[in-house]
Amino acid sequence: TLTVEGCGLNQWKIPNEPLDCRNSGTTLRTLAGALVGTNTPAVLDGSPGLRRRPMGRIVDPLRQMGALIDAADGAAPLRIGKRSGRNPLAGIDYHLPVASAQVKTALLLAALGADSATTLTEPGPSRDHTERMLAQMGVDIAIDAQARSVRLMPPSGPLKPLQFTIPGDISSAAFLIVAALITPGSEITLRGVGLNPTRTGLLDALRAMGAKIDITHAHSTPAAGQVSRFTEPVGDIIASYSPDLHAIEISGERVVRMIDEFPIFAVAATHAEGTTIVGDAEELRHKETDRIHTLAEEFNKLGIPIQEREDGFSIRGGQLYHGTSVSARGDHRLGMALAVLGLGAEEALTIHGAEIINESFPSFFSKLESLGAQRISDD
To answer: Which residues does the annotation mark as catalytic?
Structure first.
């Protein structure tokens, strides 16, 4: 149980040292928006990998709102200054160039402290967890699904506290799902996984490939108390060995709905007959690593026929591949994808830098072992 005692939008303390966001772009971007919205000066920094990720996509619109924010060459560290009373934060009408829940959330959190409404429009659908949460906290927020826009009116009073149950993470569940799909005789049930439709693009893609995936006990998350009700779609996922996977093509809106799952989707593609093609996914180049490039390099080490494309990749599946030494490249999702890939390799697979997996899924290897996978060494 996590308990947060709120202090309101106007009582945040000024940190006396830079805030270390480590390798998390989500932390840096959303916290930047919250700091701007509460007019709290701070420095946000992180790992060398985080310092390579583009931050202009939040810096530019935050400046349009009146924020005092500087970025080192468009990246971290970010320096946020304190505005005087004569320079209030202004609401804006802004069109996001890329559909991004992180950017949208940063701007929505900043908009809580603005002096007028903010309207954000995206080119495609992105995750809506923040909108659901803010609405249940009493914020006047309107969503136009057809226009792909959200309008937020700054609250005149304090936000309502929440008591709720957090669903299981579909992005973490994805690795166990694909592990079951490619391992003969397997069937697993993952209980209480979040099924928000803005996050389930991978399930749609795998089913289109012929994967045996069922959803049971679908419901909305129950409130854990009576303060306020914050609901998300939830259900149990049953994944079974699927020997007849076939190649598909992915592009357009589905890319946004599975943007974090492409490393493990690529593993499923190696077991699908035919050539799987991914396009419209240039955003993958701006994750913890350039995931298009690092996927291609590490998969090629295994003899997997993968071709890097400007905005995606293609994989010719159904081919045997051999074990060798590969690297997680400082990317937790790539590391987990390589581990699952090892389940189907002809020899043992050695993953260097696998400790990065602890960043998002500390029990990942113990979960795999409990399901029958064999870890030869922790060295």
So the answer is: 260
